[in-house]
Design brief:
The protein is mainly alpha-helical. It has 8 helices and 3 strands; from the N terminus they run H-E-H-E-H-H-H-H-H-H-E. The protein has a 3-stranded parallel sheet, with helices on both faces. 28% of the residues are buried.
Length: 165
């Protein structure tokens, strides 16, 4: 769900409001681009603080979640720097197209960013799908995020969007 929100509206800031205390879910939310993780048991003041913090472009995760999240994100970065990952088979242009997909851009936006036609973007997209062994944009973004690629947040203004679970 976070990935879909992020793809539909990249400048949005997403805060998960949840009853879960599961580290794996918090890690998955952080990987998917959540800017915050808040317990449904928190006070209104805490929730308001976290939403304001997210709107300013900062992340907020509870201390008991932060250690496991940081360990996993560091491991993601380490894997991204290794040269045997799934993204290493991509050409520079395919990687640029994938970066646009990860950032939630449309094919037309990617084409404009790269100075190519939408047909060229479609060709690169099909080639990177084949190399990554996927069939959809969402699956390609999932592989890219798992390999450590993160969205470009150049448009960092916007509103925090709470996501409940």
């Amino acid at each position: 769900l976070i990935g879909r929100f992020r793809a539909a509206w990249p400048p949005a800031h997403l805060v998960v409001l949840t009853a879960s205390r599961d580290h794996a879910q918090a890690i998955a939310a952080a990987r998917a681009g959540a800017d915050g993780w808040v317990s449904k048991e928190c006070s209104v003041e805490t929730l308001a603080h976290v939403l304001r913090t997210a709107c300013r472009g900062h992340a907020w995760f509870p201390p008991e979640q932060l250690g496991p999240i940081l360990r996993e994100l560091r491991a993601d970065v380490h894997r991204a720097h290794q040269r045997d990952g799934p993204l290493d088979a991509l050409t520079g242009r395919e990687r640029a197209v994938l970066d646009g997909l990860v950032s939630g851009r449309s094919s037309a936006q990617i084409a404009a960013d790269l100075g190519v036609s939408t047909n060229t973007v479609r060709t690169h997209t099909n080639k990177l799908f084949h190399k990554l062994g996927v069939h959809t944009r969402l699956a390609a973004v999932s592989v890219a995020r798992g390999a450590g690629m993160r969205p470009d947040h150049a448009d960092s203004g916007g509103t925090a969007v709470p996501v409940t679970s």
